Amino acid sequence: VNQHKIAAENKRLQLLTTKQNKELASLNSVLEQKVEQRTKQLKAALSRSEHATTSVKKVIYNMLSSNPLFSGAYAKSVSKVAQSIAIRLELSETQVTDIAYAALIAEIGMVGLDSKIIQTPFSKLTPAQQETYYSQAYRAQLILAPAQLPEVTDIIVNQFEFINGRGFPNSVAAEKIPLGAKVLAVARDYMRYRKGRINGTEYETLDAIDRVNN
């Protein structure tokens, strides 16, 4: 009698195990389908987000480069130099991309400034005009706020912070200046010397490098 009971119980347990295994397999299949569906949804959302970000970036650059007071060729030169420096520093792909784009629109804070300030070599500006020139850091922050590009904005806003702690807009210590802003500052001033934007003299490559180093 006991053997019959044990056999019957074993059969019941086997049937129960088989049933549970089938249910588990079915559940796993449903979960896999849901995971796959959610993955597709996330990829689509990311794609839309990236497309939107790319569109915003194009609008900002087009707004700047279409202004006759600004040079698209100059902006591209600064961006290329900044990108090369970032790559040399072995920064991540994202950092390189952010720095290159920040350099491309680095003058965004100058939109709306007096044309004399924009077109006159910096050393020939009056102290008051130089102060207005540096105010572009604040203006850039305001202009870029709706774009939701925090890393790019941070680079541009801090590009005039000096390692001696007397820069703009916040006079922060050297170690608190974003690396991207330092890269942009070097690339920007190199091209400013090359194009005569510092003191009216256009320097050759090596001389411009020496000026930046000093």
What would you say this structure looks like, in words?
With 214 residues, the chain is an all-alpha fold. Helices cover 69% and strands 0% of the residues. It contains nine helices and no strands.
Spans of at least 5 consecutive residues with low confidence:
none
Distance between the amino and carboxyl termini? 101 Å
What profile does the largest beta sheet have? Answer: none
Structural class by sheet pairing and helices: mainly alpha
Secondary-structure map with pairings?
Layout: H1 2-65, H2 72-88, H3 93-104, H4 115-119, H5 127-134, H6 136-144, H7 150-157, H8 179-194, H9 205-213
Q: How would you briefly describe this protein structure?
A:
The chain has nine helices and no strands. The chain is an all-alpha fold and 214 residues long. It starts with a helix and ends with a helix.
Features:
single chain; 214 residues; mainly alpha
